[in-house]
Design a protein that fits this description.
The complex is a heterodimer of chains A (270) and B (268).
Chain A: E1 5-16, E2 19-30, E3 34-38, H1 45-52, E4 60-65, E5 68-69, H2 75-82, E6 85-88, H3 100-111, H4 116-129, H5 145-156, E7 163-167, H6 175-192, E8 195-200, H7 203-209, E9 212-217, E10 220-225, H8 227-232, H9 236-242, H10 259-269
Parallel strand pairs in A: 3-8, 3-9, 6-7, 7-8
Antiparallel strand pairs in A: 1-2, 1-4, 4-5, 9-10
Chain B: H1 2-45, H2 48-59, H3 63-85, H4 94-132, H5 135-141, H6 146-185, H7 189-199, H8 202-229, H9 235-264
Helix pairs in contact in B: 1-6, 2-6, 3-4, 3-6, 4-6, 4-7, 4-8, 4-9, 6-8, 8-9
The chains are: A alpha/beta (270), B mainly alpha (268).
């Protein structure tokens, strides 16, 4: 495996019971880059993040993170790896019973022996990076959606992770918050020298900040390229996705027999 | 017609089979969950302040309802007991009646029932909502074990609180019986206390009562944390889990009480 590749996914299949979610996915995430995985809802994007984080095991195939096979890790090895990962959940998943400050300090207290003074400096530094140093005393319930997402971002980068994964960081945000989060994702990746994996379906926002894009549809990678290549793509799926067209390769209708046929059948039964 | 009845019977047997199968499976999961809690308890005890916090939330904050209920039940026992005993001219035995009823049965059982509805339901709701808002998944992704960090402290908080609450319930209940029997009705104070002292056996009555409340504490706490952790992560799922915590806890307390009583007080 080339040294510059932090995550390598080779021919990964995954199924819930009999329902195939991922079908032979190959993917490479180079170190230091910001990679987006895009696709419509339910296409297997979040599953991919959970496979990389080791919360799910693939049915077949290999997932290497920093040269180590995730599916073959023991519980302790998995936890050791996760300490070097940061993950932002779709709705932040902040701990609601503790303050913003304690949320960001949580991992430092759990995984390090740092003194409270040092933790205080680090927490305020992380909160300052997301612009919320002044909100450190608030409880999660007192934050707006965009602020909660930024606190979760500060928590995800608390221990300067090598890999940061974002699950739909833009979902449900107003355009200003969306832009703020987008810029933060890019800046934090570059400032920390980390590698970032961004799962999203907000194409326009993501294309502004990422280095490379993978398009997933129905459990397979259907297109990939740099933002410029994606914008110029003539692939019907990419075109439909980037320009938000209602119908195309991704059908508007859930599979069903033709409506006319169904009406005729019902009329015959009546 | 006969075929219809036959298939209905088959359907019924199948439904019962499914129900029993599901129930056994859930019981198996709960047993495995208890083993997991015990395995990760060491990790959890290293941060004992987490357990202390849970003792405060489920134990200390249940004190008011436990003490008020205990007082009322003791007072009712005093009234009803006097009413019956005085018919046989043995109203001095009121102290014994009140103390034995409370330490052997009412203390552990009623305190556990109150504990299940006050603290058990809130533990289930808290863990269930943490699951629904992905806080448990987030914790696991941060390499922090949710069973050691969230579940075990709540379990032990309940197990430790329960016998203490039951003891306080019985103590204040005896005081309630004294208030009604001695202060209001006028039963002889000396007889009330001395007969109680003479008839209540430390090992047989007090210790057995504590053992009962300890067992109830394990049952209620396990049901509460399991139902929360196993909740379907939706509003409806969490509400169903809370309901099950209260119902299953009540059934478990009463069934275990029958079993424990039949072992403890054989031939007494």
């Amino acid at each position: 495996m080339p040294a510059e590749c932090l995550v390598r996914i080779t021919d990964v299949n995954f199924a819930y019971d009999d329902r195939a979610i991922l079908k032979g996915v190959d993917m490479e995430i180079p170190r230091g880059k910001l990679i987006a995985i895009m696709g419509n809802s339910g296409c297997g994007k979040t599953t991919l993040l959970r496979l990389i984080g080791g919360q799910l095991k693939p049915t077949s195939g290999e997932i290497l993170v920093d040269g180590q096979s995730v599916p073959r890790m023991t519980h302790d090895e998995l936890y050791a790896m996760r300490r070097r990962m940061g993950m932002l959940f779709q709705f932040g998943a902040l701990f609601t019973d503790i303050s913003v400050y304690d949320n960001v300090a949580y991992l430092m207290r759990e995984h390090t022996n740092l003194s409270e003074e040092l933790i205080q400096d680090m927490v305020l530094m992380k909160l300052n990076a997301v612009g919320l140093r002044g909100a450190h005393h608030l409880m999660p319930a007192e934050l707006s959606g965009g602020m909660a997402r930024r606190v979760a971002l500060a928590r995800a980068i608390a221990l300067d992770p090598m890999l940061i994964m974002y699950d739909e960081p833009f979902a449900g945000l107003d355009p200003i918050s969306m832009g703020v989060i987008g810029q933060l994702v890019r800046k934090l990746n570059d400032a920390l020298g980390a590698t970032t994996l961004l799962v999203t379906h907000d194409v326009q926002e993501a294309l502004l900040i990422v280095d490379y894009v993978y398009f997933v549809s129905d459990g397979q990678i259907v297109a990939q390229g740099t933002p410029d290549e994606i914008r110029a793509s003539t692939d019907p799926f990419v075109h439909q996705f980037v320009f938000g067209e209602a119908d195309g390769p991704v059908r508007f209708h859930y599979p069903a027999p033709p409506f006319g046929e169904e009406l005729t059948r019902r009329a015959a039964h009546a | 017609m006969r075929k219809g009845v036959f298939s209905a019977v088959i359907e019924l047997i199948r439904a019962i089979g499914h129900y029993v199968n599901d129930a056994l499976q859930t019981l198996g999961f709960a047993a495995r969950f208890l083993v997991m809690i015990l395995v990760y308890s060491g990790q959890s005890f290293r941060r004992f302040h987490l357990t202390i916090r849970e003792i405060y939330f489920s134990g200390f904050q249940s004190l008011l309802i436990i003490l008020v209920s205990g007082l009322f039940i003791g007072m009712v026992l005093g009234m009803q007991g006097y009413e019956t005993l005085q018919r046989y001219g043995s109203s001095e035995a009121l102290g014994v009646l009140v103390a034995l009823s409370l330490t052997r049965e009412l203390g552990p059982v009623v305190a556990a029932l109150l504990f299940a509805s006050r603290a058990g339901s809130s533990i289930t709701a808290e863990i269930g909502l943490m699951k629904a808002t992905e806080q448990l998944t987030a914790m696991d992704m941060m390499a922090v074990n949710p069973i050691a960090r969230v579940v075990a402290p709540r379990f032990w908080g309940g197990v430790i609180s329960m016998p203490l609450l039951a003891a306080l319930f019985s103590a204040i209940g005896v005081f309630g019986g004294y208030l009604v029997g001695v202060v209001l009705i006028g039963v002889d104070e000396g007889a009330f206390w001395s007969q109680m002292q003479g008839s209540v056996d430390f090992d047989l009555d007090i210790v057995n009562g504590i053992i009962k409340s300890f067992v109830f504490g394990i049952a209620v706490s396990l049901i509460a944390v399991f139902e929360g952790y196993d909740a379907v992560p939706t509003a409806e799922g969490v509400s169903g889990s809370i309901k099950r915590t209260v119902v299953y806890s009540a059934l478990a307390i009463l069934a275990l009480d029958l079993v424990l009583t039949s072992f403890m007080f054989r031939g007494v």
